[in-house]
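ESCALATION

Customer reports they have been waiting on this structure for their group meeting. Please prioritize. Original submission:
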Amino acid sequence: MSKSIIAEGRTTNEAIENGLKKLNLPKKMVDIKVLENEEKRSFFSILAPRVVKVELTVKEEEQKNKKTKKEIILSKEEQDKSAQNVEEFLKEIKGTLPEDAKYEIIKKENAIYVNLYSQELGFLIGYRGETLYAFQNILTAIAGKGIENKVRVILDIEGYKAKREKTLEDLAKKVAKTVIKTRKPIKLEPMQAYERKIIHSKLQENPKVETTSIGEEPYRRIVISLKK
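Update from on-call: job pushed to the front of the queue and completed.
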């Protein structure tokens, strides 16, 4: 059964944006039905606050994808096999890495975690982690060889992700203060879903600002604005 929610706003667009924010999905992933239009107002309701209601229903394909992702649990054998695949690959490329480079592989039911350590591995991180995520995709493909289930590999290098998370949280607080002061919305640069989630989470409890995502991947970005 498809997931549906009812969202409200002062205009149709505002109601849709509020609903998309609740679902944390882009517009293309939902079907939208206007339940109560701002133009259809009776004489008796003319003095009442304007409210538009829309129903957002998650498209079946997206619903199936989310369900599939949640259900993937690796067996002990699959964990061992995928970790072995990754380790064999890392051993093969170790000669191309700095001499002091070390790696750690942690097996879990939901993913294989790989940590690389060396002060000289900045080239594997790249601009805002772009190279890191590309390398993570390569390891994911390698880890899944000979395994029926889809294997997720979570890669980190020298604790980069924790440092990046702190940077993004500080950015979120700083931009929120600017938005409150100037009363004007601010668009952030395009970010990966993982990074956008950090911004959304940091400002979720802020009583004065709200966050929305706009655009399509890989150029999807966050807008921070005053709460209406």
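Sent to customer with the following note: Residues 16 and 54 are 7 Å apart (CA to CA).
Escalation resolved.
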